[in-house]
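Table S5 (text form). Sequence records supplied for joint modeling of the two-component complex.
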Amino acid sequence: MRAAVVAAPRGLRRFFCTNSSSASPSFPFIPSPPSSATPAPARQMADPNTNLFVSGLSKRTTTEKLREEFSKFGEVVHARVVTDRVSGYSKGFGFVKYATIEEAAKGIEGMDGKFLDGWVIFAEYARPRPPPGQPVNDNAPQYGRQ
DNA sequence: CGTGAGCGA
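The corresponding structure-token record, covering 146 residues in total, follows.
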């Protein structure tokens, strides 16, 4: 099913941005942040953290399988496949928490765009999540709203 | 519709 390839989020950057050599032999960096408008929404990927967001999982992929696959690239502190409380089935994505950021990067580079249960999975840094310790306050929305 | 975009009880 090529639908999985079409439904790829930001993970397809690897296929188009096949950089490696002959990138920019003149400018190692880009010293032009405030050019004119904001052509860089920076919404491609969240900040590097030990939390990983894995998408493209098969419906039959469970937390154990996810932890097993990601444990090969580093020590997985916590892994969870998001499932519905009422139905009980997987939502098709999950989260993997590594011990360090380097291991998280290894997990992304090692499992992003790979196959799992016959489906192409995509791994990237997860977004920050509000801790469940704070009780309800005003209708203050989360900062992670796009 | 367990037929596929996405961020978690």
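Note: The beta strands of chain A are 51-55, 76-83, 90-98, 115-116, 119-120, 122-125.
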